[in-house]
Specification:
Layout (H helix, E strand, L loop, with lengths): L6 E2 L6 H7 L7 E6 L3 H6 L6 H13 L4 E8 L6 H21 L8 E8 L16 H14 L8 E2 L9 H5 L6 H8 L8 E3 L1
């Protein structure tokens, strides 16, 4: 039996959970640090440290997992180039965690870093924050790609990225205009747009 899991909390991925998952065929695990530095994770109230993430990855690698996906967002409020480059650093540290923890290294490892374009959502702390333009999003993806060429193989922009610009504006329209927003949003999945390593 194959069991595919959604994104897991990286601060409480336990040995007990992993032992239960051992009964099925291992696929991969997904964690969502969302930002590349502790400063930015604190700013968006993401209660997760890099050590939490790395410890969960060590447990997974020691338990026989060889595929981990890390999910981040680009364009978060107050994000700087240092925060973007921090994503490449985290990927490198996860690779190091595999080297020090994996019991069977002959299988190799697959570490996937997925980035999506931040869209301000209504009824959140950042609902009135601007969405970065597509040109700036692409610049940050390029910066991330070039951040560490030994760790980052390639970044690919999703084809719907251009269509999502202005998504925050549509989401924040008054209720009378939400019918228009819903029609525009039909057939699109804003959560899965982004860059893929």
């Amino acid at each position: 039996m194959t069991l595919a899991l959604p994104s897991l909390r990286a601060d409480n991925f336990s040995m007990a959970l992993m032992e239960r998952l051992q009964k099925g065929r291992k696929t991969g695990l997904t964690f969502a640090p969302e930002a590349g530095t502790q400063r930015l994770r604190d700013a968006i109230n993401k209660n997760l440290t890099e050590e939490d993430l790395l410890e969960s990855c060590r447990r997974a690698f020691a338990g026989g997992y060889s595929a981990v996906k890390l999910y981040f967002m680009l364009g978060l409020p107050t994000e700087t180039d240092e925060d973007v480059l921090g994503i490449a650093d985290i990927a490198a540290h996860v690779m190091h965690a595999w080297r020090e923890s994996a019991l069977n290294k002959t299988r190799g490892v697959r570490i996937t870093v997925s980035t999506s374009w931040f869209v301000p959502k209504p009824h959140t702390a950042f609902q009135w924050e601007p969405q970065i333009p597509i040109e700036e999003y692409e610049r940050r993806v390029k910066l991330l790609r070039e951040g560490d060429e030994h760790q980052v193989r390639h970044v690919q922009l999703a084809p719907l990225a251009h269509e999502l610009y202005g998504g925050g504006h549509l989401l924040r329209r008054p209720p009378a205009r939400q019918g228009h927003r819903d029609r525009v949003a039909q057939g699109r999945n804003a959560q899965r747009v982004g860059g893929l390593f």
